[in-house]
Every structure is written in C-alpha cells, then in structure tokens.
Amino acid sequence: MSSARPHPVRIAFVALTLALLTLLVLAGCDRDLAPPLVEVMEISPREIEVGDRLEIRGRGFPQGRAAHVTFRGTLHRAGEKAKTGVSIDLQAVVTNDERIDAILTEDLEERFCGRNDAASHTTFRGNVEVAFASSTPGAPPLVGIARGIVLDVRPPSISSDVADARAKEGARVLDFLGITPGAPSPRGLPIDGVRSPADRAGIQAGDVLAEVDGVRVANAADVLPASSRAVTLVVRHADGVGEETKVLPMAGYASERIPIEYGPALFIVGLALASLVLLVVPSPALLSVAELRMARRLERTSIETMVRALTGKGPFAIAFSLSSILVGTFALGPHVIADEVDGALLFVVAIGLLATGRAIEDKGIVDRVRAVLGVLGVSIVLVLSLAGIVLLEGALSLGELVRVQGALPWELTAFREPAAFVLALVYFGAIFWLLRPREGKSRQIESGLDRVGVLFACALGAAVFFGGWQIPGVAVARSFGWQLVGAFVFVAKSWLLEAMLFAARAIACPWERPEALSFAWRRLLPLLVFGFALALLSRKLMPMSASLGIVWGAAIVFALTLLTARSVLRIRSAMLRPDPRASPFL
Prior knowledge:
With 586 residues, the chain is of the alpha+beta class. The chain has 16 helices and 14 strands. The chain has an eight-stranded mixed β-sheet with strand order 1-3-6-5-4-7-8-2, covered by helices on one side. Strands 9, 10, 11, 12, 13 and 14 form a six-stranded antiparallel β-sheet that branches. Helix 12 runs antiparallel to helix 15.
C-alpha cells in the first residue's frame, strides 16, 4: 500500500499562511524599530531661573508650528515629600528644525518651585515630551520624547529671613549627620570632615554631597530631609570611582518644623477636638442669643426682602449690579490698572464710597467730618490687617496674593495660616463695626454708596483671604471662558461675605455705643495685635510645610462646617418652636 501524499493545494495554503504570519511579525518589529519623525535629544541648560531661555535640541522639528512641551515626572523639593505624576505644560517657539526655545516665566516657575516664600529649589526628574499638531485633519500629532531628564529650577526671590532659616536648618541637619561642609561647588557640597554617623556609613572627608532625597545639592538649604525617619544621600567619592547612595537614620533629630509624617495624626486630633468642643461643650450664651435672634428674624423675613437688603432696589440695585461687573473684571486678566495698584484701588474705592455715603447721610459740617473721620479710623485697622497678610505671605500685589492660594477651602490663606485666620477676623470685624447703627440714625444701610463700598471691601477681603478668582481643579485660567468662570466665583464670594456682614448686623441690632466701643477695644484690638505677632513670628521661624498647612486648613474648615451645621439645626428648631406669646388655641 502506497503512502498518501499531501495535496498540492494544502501545501500551498500552509505556505501562504506561514508567509503571512512572518510578514505580520516583521511589520510589527519594523514599526517598533522605525525612527520617529520628531526626535528630542538634549535639554539645556540643566539649571534655570525665571527669565532664562530653555533650549530643546533634536531633529525633525517642523518650522512654523507651535510646539507643545510637557514635563512629566517627579518634583523633588528640599524638606518636602516628592510629588509624583506631575505634568507641566508650556508653549515653545521652533527656532529651526533642530532647536526649540522656551522662556521660564513666573507662572511656570511657580508650578515647578511653589509660590513666594513657600517656593524652594526644585529638581525635576522625568521625561520631556514635545508635540506638534498634525497638518492633516484627524491625524495624530507628531511627538518626540526625551527620557531621564534632570532639571533644576530655582526660585528668583525668597525673603532673607526664610533663606537664612533654611540655611540654618540645613546646617543643623549636616551637624546631626556628622558632616562638616566646605564651600559649595558646582559638583555639590564638599565634605571637609566626618564623624558618626556619617563615618559609619562609609562617607569620607573629600567626598562631595551631590543629592539629598532627590534634590541636587547646591548649598546647605538643599539638605533639608523629606522625612523625619531617614535621609537618602548621594555621595561622589574623592577617588573618582563614582557615586554611591547612602541611607542614614534621622531618629532623634529635633526639627523646628513638625515632621510631615505627623500630618494625618494631627488632622485626626484636630477633628476630635473640634467635635468635642462643638458637640459636647455647651455653647456660649452669646452664640445662643444670636441663633435665637436669627430664628426670629427669619420667621418675619422673605427671600425677596433679603435680596433687597443686599442689593437695594431701583437705582441702587442697578449701581450694585454695575459694581459687581467691575469687581469681576479683576479676574479677567493679569491686572486692571497695574498688578501693584489693583489692591490699593479696591481699598481706596471702598473707603471713599463708605466715607462719602456717611457724609451724605449726615447733616451739618461737624457730623459729616465726624462720620468721615470714623471711616478713616476703621480704615487704619483694615490697612494693618492687610499689612499683616503681606508680611505673612511675602507678596505685595493683589495677583500674587491670589496666586499663593488654592481654590479648595483648606488651601485658602485664611484657613491655611493661623495668623491669617486671626487677621481675617479683624478685617471683617472692622467692616462689621463700621456697619453698626449710629445714634440718631434709624435707616439701615439704605445708601447705595454704602452698599457698593462694602462690596468693594468684601471683594478685597475675598481676594486676600479666600482665594479670589481661583477655580477648583484649574491651576491657571488661560482661556477667556475659564476667566469668566473665575470672575463669577470672585463676585459670588464677595456677595456671600457682604451678605454675612449684613446678616450679622441685623442680628446684633440693637447695638448701643458702649457695646460697639467694647467690641472694638476688647475684641478687635487684641486680635489685631495677636495676628500681627503671629505673622512676625512665622517670618522668623521656619515656615510651616505645605502639607501641614493643608492639615491645619482642613481641621479649621471641618470645625467651621460643624459649627455652621449645628447652628442651622438649632435655628431651625427655634423657628419650629411655638411662640410663647401666641394663643394656645391657634
């Protein structure tokens, strides 16, 4: 019996299948090995400051198109935990097909280093992605990636007090580690002498301290550890063998700053204390009286009446609306007149309107002069509280004071800094004192000038203490649409603050002159002195870390939310309670 031979058709089918599979594999390999259309090769210089030109070199850059550059990686800052998964975008200019130029602006520097006195030398580690929109509709963009880039960004201006405090703290860290530093050099911080524990770790005199917890060392201020448990050092040996990583324990090191690891524990303790004080401890009699007065007034007040109390009616409402639009324009650009003048403009307009409104309301030269002097006296308290914030944040212009804040409640200056919280109470307490009913005056803020003046004062307070036009989830409102959203947020905050002041004024009535003077001398003045002292103290000591600042802010926000919820429930209960003077048969 002869063996069966394979059919020729089957042989051809198997051969064709093997050929197709081979072509698919080769095509996949070729796709991986094909050179990219855009290639990024080098980033220089590797150390930049605001105003410096960053050059990106490569091949295949299409001229005449905008380059979208993205830094993706990790930010290492002295004394802070590394920030991973960071994405920072910027627009660059194509100089030729092998070079792209980008300028480090102040906004870009803040995104790398942080804001104002909280900013610090930052070492970026990650990839730099350069993308160009395709000229063919629907086609993917042209992308080139440079991997393993290390870039050092240095903030241009930090106050001398903060710089000295960081240098002293770095010197204390080196002394604790047993390292005697030499004069800084471009390679790092030379080590002139060692003792325990540095010598036990194998560090020798003549070595160079290159990195501390991912931050490339240029001076003692870069030696601040990111953790209170251990510090990771990169040391370059004097014999030129190479670099070596050392991990030294930090147990027993006492820092002026509370370790970041204690943040969650402090937050839990803060929540527990707030809950204990607000839910267990009996409320003060003054708060109970205020809640009862608000309940009685809400029973006799409609929503329309409350809106009219805020905006006025007729021409006053039109003036209030136009003033609100003017307030919103501060969020539509970098400045209205000039960045250093916008804050002063809001303040002068607010005080001028309030003084003019009080002068028009009075009759007689003596009464008018007395009213104007009263407004000017309150303005001194407002100026001092704003000066405390400028001292605390190290920023002078209105835009800078807004940029140092986030949009979330625990990122606002009033909640993130204890001194700012006290100064905010003084600022709005002074406006509240100015709104008090005066002797012989039966009207309650019926002048349109008064309303508009309070609106501008509240707008300034919203910008300085409560984030201004910051939008949650949006770092910088670049498009006009987002700027409109920021303007609406800014105006809404100003309205809310003004409504709270008017509500507090309505609850406090009747408010006699002795009570008003007692409030000014026994409440506002001590708070002002205390807040200013806290601001001065925070400038001398090491500033609170960003993480602990957020923990403090979150605890304050939780306490205020709990207090508000408790007051709302008590007011609602008082409103539902029958009036004792009403007939029992009704």
